[in-house]
Design brief:
Elements (H helix, E strand, L loop, with lengths): L1 H18 L2 H5 L2 E8 L3 E11 L4 E14 L2 E2 L3 E12 L4 E4 L5 E5 L4 E4 L2 E5 L4
Antiparallel strand pairs: 1-2, 1-9, 2-3, 3-4, 3-5, 5-6, 6-7, 7-8, 8-9
């Protein structure tokens, strides 16, 4: 009887491990992106935290410099809060206000918001 119970526990453990959602567990964290061009330089940070069920809150902080006539102007900052819903079938977040699709790549520690790529910061 004891062996049967242990066998059932092992089967349940492996079943749970196989059905765990690697993407969902990867989502919470801090992601960064830097971009620059002829007219501006920007650094973007997304902090993603779960709220309830399949809902997430995303804090976006952006620092940027406008470049005019070859001169970089004073650093400016903007903040936003996005709400997003996780789709278990596609393993993506959809931002609810504008419908932005956020795709995750846990194996390379990245996410994409449209064509913009963010890398996840490692936590210690």
């Amino acid at each position: 009887m004891r062996t049967l119970i242990m066998l059932m526990a092992v089967v349940l453990f492996f079943t749970a491990a196989c059905t765990s959602d690697k993407t969902r567990s990867f989502i919470p964290g801090t992601y960064v992106n830097s971009a620059g061009g002829q007219y501006s330089n920007a650094d973007d940070t997304l902090v993603i935290e779960p709220t309830e069920s399949n809902n997430y809150l995303i804090h976006r902080r952006t620092g940027f410099n406008i470049i005019r006539n070859g001169k970089t102007e004073k650093r400016q900052h903007e903040t936003e809060e996005w709400k997003a819903v996780y789709d278990e079938a596609t393993k993506t977040l959809t931002e609810t206000a504008k419908g932005k699709l956020i795709t995750f790549y846990p194996d390379s520690a990245k996410l994409m918001v449209g064509k913009r790529e963010y890398r996840k910061l490692r936590t210690k």
